[in-house]
Amino acid sequence: MTALAAIPAGYLLGLLSGARIVGHAVHTDFTFIGTRNPGASNVAMTAGKKWGAVTCAFDIGKCVAAGALFAGTGLACAAAAAAVFGHCWPVWHRFRGGKGYACYVGLMAVIDWRMALCVLVTGLLLAVLADTMMGMTLSSAVLAPPAACALCGVFPACCALAASIAIFVRHQDNIGRLRRGEEPSFRATLAGKYLGGLK
Predict the structure, then answer these.
(1) Does the predicted model carry a pTM greater than 0.85?
(2) CA dist 31 to 37, 56, 96, 128, 197, Å?
(3) Per residue in 12-59, pLDDT tens?
(4) Are 116 and 63 in contact (CB under 8 A)?
(5) Which terminus of the chain is more solvent-facing, meaning fewer CB atoms within 10 Å of its CB: N or C?
């Protein structure tokens, strides 16, 4: 497969939404309840942790699958990054997709599993200390590009940076709530509590 195929192939895989697939299984449209975000956190808080875990695993897996298609070609991280963009801005859902963190975890795993583990552990500690899932999300988006550069080189770091920008753009509402002290706590997210009224 050529370089021209990596980005569209990754983007197309990113269009497969774990939340929408789970939604069909439980007869629920997650774009109309909870935070109205078709992502793992909203699924966990509205349908339960089991379905949230399924959604999370699916979204991580599709980015890993995108990378696997181009394993050994040097384009794996580009395909995985494109999957993040496909998840966040799906063309067949009017570019209204999820916020991309689970996919971002998949991208980090494609770049280097050691980097992914270190970034996630650091992010988890920050999330616990700050008592908000955004501590994990934002710290990962900040730490992954320089870590990728140190471990794997400039090109993987550029792929991580592009996906990090997507993460920050898609989490603007969360950042606003965080500044106002309205963002759900880390414990509430883990407990799968319903967040009615948030948008």
Answers:
(1) yes
(2) 5, 16, 9, 28, 12
(3) 999 999 999 999 999 988 888 887 888 888 888 888 889 989 999 999
(4) no
(5) C
